Structure formats: C-alpha cells, structure tokens
Amino acid sequence: MDxxxxxPRLRHELRDQDAAWCLGRYTFWWVxxxxxxxxxxGRLSQDDLPLLPRADDPELLFQKCAALxxxxxxxxxxxxxxxxxxxxxxxxxxxxxxxxxxxxxxxxFLFFMTIDPLMLRVLLSAVQDMGTxxxxxxxxxxxxxxxxxxVRVSCMEICFFVSVRVQNNVRSVLVHAIFRKSLWIPExxxxxxxxxxxMATDADKIGKWSGLLFELSQWSWTFCSLPILVxxxxxxxxxxAFIGMIMIILGATTSRSLGxxxxxxxxxxxxxxxxRARLMxxxxxxxxxxxxxxxxxxxxxxxxxxxxxxxKAICRVRILQAFNSLVxxxxxxxxxxxxxxxxxxxxxxxxxxxxxxTALAWITTLQWSVQSxxxxxxxxxxxxxxxxxxxxxxxxxxxxxxxxYGAPAPNGALPSSVELRPMAQLAQAQHRSMxxxxxxxxxxxxxxxxxxxxxxxxxxxxxVKDAAFGYKRxxxxxxxxxxxxxxxxxxxxxxxxxxxxxxxxxxxxTLLASLACARPALHGSCHTxxxxxxxxxxxxxxxxxxxxxxxFGLPYDEERYNSCVEMAALPDDLKTLTRGDYTLxxxxxxxxxxxxxxxxxxxxxxxxxxxxxxxDDVLSAVDAHTARFIWQxxxxxxxxxxxxxxxxxxxxxxxxxxxxxxxxxxxxxxQIWLEGPWSVLAHSGxxxxxxxxxxxxxxxxxxxxxxxxEHASHAEARGKENExxxxxxxxxxxxxxxVWLHECQSALASVLGALDGRRIDRMLIERxxxxxxxxxxxxxxxxxxxxxxxxKVYLQAFGSTLIISLMLLLMIFSAxxxxxxxxxxxxxxxxxxxRSERESVLxxxxxxxxxxxxxxxxxVLLTAGALAASHTIHHDMLHKILAAPMSFFDSSxxxxxxxxxxxxxxxxxxxxxxxxxxxxxxTLNIITQxxxxxxxxxxxxxxxxxxxxxxxxxYRRMRIPNRDSRRLESAARSxxxxxxxxxxxGRETVRAFGAEARFEQENLxxxxxxxxxxxxxxxxxxxxxxxTTQWGCILYCASAFVCVELARQGRMPAGHMGLVxxxxxxxxxxxxxxxxxxxxxxxxFVSVERVAEYMRLDSEIDAGSNETNQRWKGEIEFQAVSMRxxxxxxxxxxxxxxxxxxKSKLAFCGRTGCGKSSLFSVLNRLYPLASGSVLxxxxxxxxxxxxxxxxxxRVVSQEAFLISGSLRxxxxxxxxxxxxxxxxxxxxxxxxxxxxxxQSLSGALDFAVDMAGQNFSVGERQLIxxxxxxxxxxxxxxxxxxxxxxxxxxxxTANIDVVTDEKDITLAExxxx
Length: 1313
Fold this sequence. Notes:
Elements: H1 22-27, H2 32-41, H3 58-71, H4 83-93, H5 96-128, H6 135-182, H7 192-207, H8 212-237, H9 240-285, H10 287-292, H11 296-346, H12 353-395, E1 417-421, H13 423-433, E2 460-475, E3 478-493, E4 497-502, H14 508-515, E5 523-528, E6 532-535, H15 546-551, H16 558-567, H17 571-576, H18 594-607, E7 612-616, H19 624-640, E8 645-649, E9 663-668, E10 671-676, H20 678-681, H21 687-727, H22 729-734, H23 741-754, H24 762-773, H25 788-798, H26 801-830, H27 837-883, H28 886-891, H29 894-936, H30 943-985, H31 987-993, H32 996-1048, H33 1054-1095, E11 1116-1123, E12 1133-1140, H34 1156-1163, E13 1171-1176, E14 1179-1180, H35 1186-1192, E15 1193-1196, E16 1205-1206, H36 1207-1212, H37 1222-1231, H38 1235-1239, E17 1248-1249, H39 1258-1270, E18 1286-1289, H40 1298-1308
Parallel strand pairs: 4-8, 4-9, 6-7, 7-8, 15-18
Antiparallel strand pairs: 1-3, 2-3, 2-5, 9-10, 11-12, 11-13, 13-14, 16-17
C-alpha cells in the first residue's frame, strides 16, 4: 500500500480529453489510440485506457466537495430531508464547468430539434405545390435539414458523454465519502452489510444514471420553449394544440404518481439486499467454522430467505414499471390522436400531409418528453431510495451523545446495562444537542488528517480520569450502554512497562483498546500522548503480502524492516514460505498460523516506531521458546531501551513478576482492583497473586534446567542436521518440492472447469500457470468473446420455450403495428382511404394502443423469465460457494465474492434481460423501417454500401475495447470492495495507528482505477456512436434528395415523402442504437460470465455416500500423512504416522507454524492429502460423508466465530432440528464456566449477539465455541447426552485466564455428567 502509486501516469501516446482538439472532441478521436492498441493486441489492459481528465481526479473532487459541505450554511431543518441537495452539490457546485458544458450541448441539440419541423413543413409544402418553390431551394432545404441533423447528433453525443463523466465523478465522491465516514462512525451505528451495500449498489446505481444531465437539459428546454412550441403548433392546428398540451400534462402527472408508487418497493429491495449482503459477508468470513460445524444447510436457508423477499419486491417493481410504461405509451399515443381528432372532427379541417407530418414533428418534440417520462420516473423511483440512504448515512451526525451514567450498585458492581433509552427520547436528545441536521458538516471525517504528535518531554504517556469503558448497542427499543469498566483513574509514565491482568471478561481488551485510542470511552477523559501502535487479541491483517502488512502503508526501509522481522522471530517462518515476505496472507491472514499472525502484527507495531505500544496477549499465540525470545529481544532490548511506553495484556502470569515490569494493573468486577509494582502487590495476600508467586518459583527452577538441556539438544540437532546435509543434500533440497500427479489434476480441474467452453488462449494458459505456481490470487480479467456456455447459462435459466416464443411473437406484432400506424397516417393524409375522419382516428388510435399493450404484455413475460433466471443463478451459485473447498476462500477476498453476489447479480436482475429484449426490438424495428424506406424510395438502396462498410469497420474496431473495458471496470470494483471490507473489520487497528490517511490514499487509488474503467468504456462507446450517427446523416441526406426528385417527377406524394423522411431520421439513430446494443448485450453478459465462473467452482470431494450407524470409538491412525495448502507451497505435514487410541487425551506441542492446526484440518478433510491416509475406527475418513465426519469430529477453532443472532442460535445452529432442550444448553455453558455470565445477560439464552460476537470478550467467545461443540447435533435428553467421540481443541484456552484454563483442561480430560 503505497500512497505514491495514486499519482496519475504520464503517457504521451494516449492523450486524454484535456489535450484533444476541437474536431477530435466532437468525433471522440482522442480515444482512438486506446482502440488501436486494443485491436493490435487483441485485448485491452488497464494501462491502455485513456487517462481521466485532471478535473475528474477523485481526490481533487472530494477535497472540493468536503470544503463545500463545510462552508454551506444550514438550509433545511432537522426534520426536512432533501436527498437531491446532496446530488446537486456534487453535480453542480464542484463540477460547474463540466456541468454547463453538457447542458449547453443538450440545449443546442434540442434547439436544432425544435427548428427541424419548420424546415420540414416548408419542404413538404414546396413538394405539394411544386410551382411556388424552385427545385434548387428544395435541395437547399434538404442540405439544411441534413446539416441540422449532423450538428444535432454531435451535440447529443457530447451531452451524453459529459453526463456520464459527471455521474462517474459523483460515484467516486460518494464511494470515498462513505469510506471516510466509515472509519469514524461509532460501533453501535456500524452495519457492515448496509454500508457495504451503500458502496457496492447504491453509489454504483447513482453513478450509472448516465442520462441525468441530458434529462435535465431536455426538461429545462421543454419548459423554456413550451410557449414557442405551443405557439407554432397553434398556428398549425389551431385550438387542437391546447388539447395536445392537456394530454401532455396528464401524462406527466400520471407518470410521476406511478413513479412515486415504485419507491416503496425499491426501498424494500434495498433493505433485503442490505440484509443479504450482511449475511454473505458474515458467512464468507467465517467459512471455516461453517464447514467444521456443518452449517451449510442453515446458511443456505438464512441467505435464501432475504433473497426470496428481494425477488418478490423486484417482481412488484418490474410489474409496476411495465404498467407505467403502458400508461406512458397510451398517453403518448393519445397526444397526436387527440390533436388530429380535434382538428378534423371538431374544427372540421382537412388533414393534409404537410399539416400532419409537421404537426407530428412538433408533437414529437413535445412528446419526446412525455415518452421519456415513464423511464425518467422509473429511474427516479429506483434512485431516490439510494440517494436517501446515502444522504442519511453521510448527514447523520456521528458525535457521541452523552447519556446519563448510572451509579454503581451497593455491592460495588456496576450493572451491565446502564441505561436503555427509547428512540423518541434519543431523537429529542439529538435535536437538543444540535441546532440542525447540518451539524454533520463540522465532523472530523471531512477534515484533512493531521499526523500524531511525536512524544517529547511528557511525564505521562497515558492519562485517564473518571472514565468508563464499554460499548453501545442500537436496537429497535433504543440505544443502550453496556459498561465494562467504571471509575477508571490511571496514569502511565512515559517509557514504562505496564502489564494488565484479570479473569476472562474482566475488561482487559476493552481498556487496552481505549488506551490505544482504538475505541472511545463512554464517559470521562482518556488521553494518549504521541504516536500509537496496537496489536489486538485477534490481529488485523490486510489481504496483501506479509511485507505490506508489516509496513502498513509506510515507506519501506530495508534496515529497519529486517530488524523488525528479526525481533518478531519471523526469519525462520519466512524461509519456509516460497515467496518469503511477498507471500499473500489471504483474507484475515488465513494463509498463516495463529502465531505467525500475531508476530506479523507485532512486527508492524515495531516498524511504526510508535511512542506508546499496546499489545493484547501476543504471547499466548506462540510457543514458550518464542515467547521468551520476544520478551527479551523485542520488549526489553528494543521497546524499553528505546524509552517506548509498553502496555501489555497477558494471561501468561509468569511474566507479571519479571523485574522489567514497572507496574501491574489487575481488573476485577468492572473496576481496577489492584495497581502497582509487583514488589507491592505480591504481599497483598490475594489467592491469585499467590498462585503467580508459586508459578514464578517453579518456572525459575525449570529455567536453569531447561537452558542447559536446550543448549545440548540444539547442539545435537545441529550436528545431526549437518550430518544429514552432507549425506543427503539432494534429498533434503527436494523432499518438500515433491508434487503428486493427483494434486496437479485436482488443481487444474478446478481452473479448467471454471473456464468451460472457452478456447485455449493466452488467458487460459496464464490461469493454468498460476494454478500450478500458486499465484491465482487476483480477479483476473478475461479476454476474447463471451463464450457460448456463458450465454447458455442464462438462457437455460431464463424460462420455458413457450415464454420465449410468446415474447418474440409480441415483439414482432409490436414492430409491425408501429409501422402500420405510420402507414395509416400517410394513407389518411394522402386521401387514398375512403373512410370517414372518425373511422380514421379510431383506427390510428387502435394501432397505437395495440402496440402499447403488446409491449406491456411482453414486459410482464420478460419479468417472469428474468426472475426465474435470477433465482436459478443465485441458488446455484450459493450452492457452489457453500460446497467450494477451503482453498478457494483462502485465496478469494470477501470483497470479490460480495462483488459477484451484489453488483453482478444486480446487473443480472435488472439490466441483462432488458438489454436482450431491447436488442430484439431494435432488430425488428430496423428491419421494418428499412423495408418501408426501400419500398417507398428504392434509389436509397444506393447508399447501403456507403453505410454498410463504415458501420462494419466501426463495429469491428470498437467490439474488443468496448467489451474489455467493461471487464476492466467490473474487475476494478473488486479491489474497492475488498479493501473496504478489510478496513471495516480493522477499523480499530487503523484508528489506533493513526493510519486513516494512508488507507484513504489506497482507497483513492482503487476508486481512480474503477473510475478510469467506466470512463474508458463510455469513451469507446461514444466514439462508435458519434461516428455512426454522423455517418448516418448521409442516409438521411440521400433519402431526402431521392424523395425530392421522385416528387418532382410526380412519382411520390407528399405524405409518403414525409413518411420516408420521418423514418430516415429515426433510422440513422436506430442503426447506431442497434450496433451499440449488440455490443451492450455482450458487455452486460460480462456479469453473467463472472457469475458463471463461480457456478462452475470445484466442490469438496465427498466420496462417502452412506450414513453409518456404527458406535463410534474415536480411534485415529495417521498413515504416512503429507499435506500442503497450495500446490506451490511446501509440505506442511511430511509423512506423519501416528496412532491414537480411543478415549486418549493428547496434547500436540511445537513451535508456531509447525503444523498443529494443519493436523486438525486433515482430520476434518478441510484440505486434501498429498499422500497417505487417515483412519477413524479403522475406516479411511475419505469413505465417510463429510457431514457424518464433521459431526463426529468436533473442532474448537483457533479463532472463535460467532454469528449475529441470539446466543441460543449460536449454540444450536448446527443441530438438525430446533429441539435441543435448554437443560442441555445450560449444562454445556456450566461445563465451560459461562453459566453465571449468561444468566446475568438480558434475555439469557436469547441475548442478542453482535456481528462477530463483538459484545463478548475474545476469551468469552472461545468459551462459547467450546460450549457449542459440546451441544449434540441431534435432540436428546440430558441423561443421554455424551461428549463427541473426537474433540479437537486448537488453542481453545489461549485467551483465557489461568483459573478458567484449569477448568477447561479438566473438561478435556472428560466432562462429568
């Protein structure tokens, strides 16, 4: 993570828009270098994309926006909410030049669109009366119309593209603003799923509102020019113009009402998506526990439930949208029908071709706004909830509300829940504490970060006065405070060594986090002077390399870095890794052992060179030898000699009496119980301290003996090692590099399965190479066309052949009826029909309504097919994710998985079916329009070669860069979400280190890459659109010249000429839409392609098929077991042979990273064996079904994992039914020593557990997970309860105190009934 990498690249070949010349801007020729490079290489890479304009730099935009938000005065009361103000401030106030550039081009487009009917009327009148206007004048009018169209389409493309730029910038600002505020928001307001959805879905939806400025231009021009348009229309058709205006106003009102009705269901969709995102994030981060506890069916049901509600809401939204479109279409038809009916039936006028087609052109100018109303209001209805949600998040003040603090109880203990405040009282308190909602404008996340002051000449490094520490929780009933420590008064001298000790749940971690400024105090003051470093009990690791985790965004200093690695006892561990400190640690450090994680975090604290270092039980995760090394080399010889203030929480009580420790803080009953040096505390007579003293004497006696034996054993080991190296040098060099054929087959099968149906190309070969070398840790961008199997995934899930056939028939009918209505108008105005005016009006109206009805029914059928496809794809992908091997989650960040389940799935829900339907309709419309033009004016066929060749060349040139830029933009979102997810889960560590600025720079780098992807994709598309529409003006010009000549010869009436010119004008735009639509379908299917890759994931090998009813003994035998985590990694277990008798109690000891946890993973088949076998009761475990094996072999993981829900749900989730009795649950809690704690909680077993169990200490979480594995998988009576046949405890007591540890050791020896 290097802030310097966010600087823009300077390239001279790929000039960006800033350097483009005038004609190049209107033809988008400045993007040609990217298109040329993509076609030369056959692919487009990130470096080939055009650079963002300087005005679009995300950092510059946010700085402007933050300054604006802070300067703005209060413009609304606390009760008023206007989310449009947020959007307006980003669109207009900080992008005025770009905003005006787009709007002015939009107005220019609309101006020429307004004057076109005037010239068309003159031309048609001249054709009707050939004697009044010369043929030269008619040709000049044709040239003027063609030039007007050229200017019009060029300005339209500029307006659309700049509108995309503005909205892309809006997304960049919102994403970064959400990121920054997330670092500051209090824990009780933190909803990880909702905030992730704000960034992944809501901000992205707003950023894709590409037509915002064009629609603004359209509406503003319409209202400004409305009197002029009505005047011209009145001069043409008289009082019928007012009837048309009434219909337009009625259509606008109706569409707006229907759009508002959509907002309710759109908000419901977002709420369900928030819930699903939260569950998905929780599930992926705890996938190891999910598999070990056999929770796959439970999680499938938990995630499917909100998805089902989401699908119902989406169905209602799409049905309402179809009805909205129907109403809008009918009202659009009613405008010309009402005008012509009033003009002919009421005013008794004869409808001529000049009047009809000129009026139709005027009406089209007005009607265009009406026709776009359903789409505009649908868009507003979809985006308004997203705007409101983001606005609420950004503008809700994060200032901690001061709540009354309850006095301690008479016995000295503080109640766990101090106060519960109803929401109404909370709102009143908020209103009193701030004059208006705009108080958020002065909050710290809008300010520039200032570096921490370096500690100098300060007596006390930490000062705490009358403070209370704990946490707050927001529930439906109000805000509650849970106080863990009260009445804390503490001073820590600079340069001293302080240790904090106490029982499980006494508040050690809470106190340390507050001292490190990672968590605010509930009340009172807590001040820490100087720079800080903090290592929590569960170390926070970025999903990056070991080096990146140690440097933590600071510049790399080799000498300092090597020293830190040495003091953290990491050199030996790095030597065992193939890529050394460039090894990717994976999500939450899954590639490392518990001890390695702790030491990497410790190395980070050393590298920071902080003044105050807070370490939370870092010695519990390492072996005794390593702990002594760290104590001496790191704590004593570095921290203390460098005059650093060291505050250490530890359950290793033997260190409390070390002479280096200046002071000890003992916690009990929510307060500081004892404080002072060991020489004073040792004589207090406390039982616990007496235990420490006895332990100290015992350890001192052991140390002398162990040191002698250790030196001798090390010398002997070195001698044997040297001897073996001389005798077997080649064997020792290659033993860990042996790879079996079945390992390669398994690795390649998963890669080739995910790429099913693709041709062998460079990307596939690269994937195979990365699978074999272990570098497949990035979201690679595919190359080439979307493969047919990927298309087939969607089409097979779409629905039955009957639905598809009916949709096609309705589309054909709609296209034909639309053409027939225009043909009827031409025949009517030409006087070729012998029908009355009333019949003509009714037929014209009937054809228009039939088109609208067909489109509505087709939209309903499309909804049915789209929902079926979305349901099937989500269900199959979720099944595959739950069945995926653990190695997949080790290399796939949570953000990447969430990107598939949120952003890509949203595209499949909403955009993919619409793009397919629109493309089919465009095809039918072009066929009918071309047929009509060439039937009426066959000489226009001469223009076909002139148009076909350039169109073909443009399409072939833009296809590769358009598709690949879309892939790059999709892939660029994953790092944004992955980094955001990492940061959310490590907020306390980031805040403690004062590293917010570094993380924000990293986020800006990812946001800039994502923004560049969308900018490049739109630029390529607009290049093709601009050239296509500009070249298409030739068709219009040729058609007009041919029509004038045919009319001069008397071979074409004026009505037919108006018809040809009308469709020629539409056709040049429709042909561009068709070409872009073909590319857009392929672009939209990138999401299907990415999802299909997950639907083809390899599943865990589950060879077992039959459940066994045998009585389990628990006898285990390892037979020459070898195992590695990844194909490129060294063997972690090497030929282990071991037999464990039934009911044995074994303790596996060894240095951190030696394979203890790996041995447990083998027993549960989380990872495949490289060689050998494991027998359980004489049967190879590969012959057991995974569910049976993991139900009988229970594991307490090294990292405790709790889900958000009730405590009861955390204990019984793995059961086959909900019939586990409370007696058994209370018994299991009593066995692990948590019964009293749970009884003191509000709700007891129904107590609400926060996400990841944050309202429990780490030690308490470990005890809960231990109790969970004791709960039987099937309901039974307390008398029939029995412990699991095999119980594996992986450092289950690492984070608990000595007394509780003794109890759990007794439990491991056999829990009594």
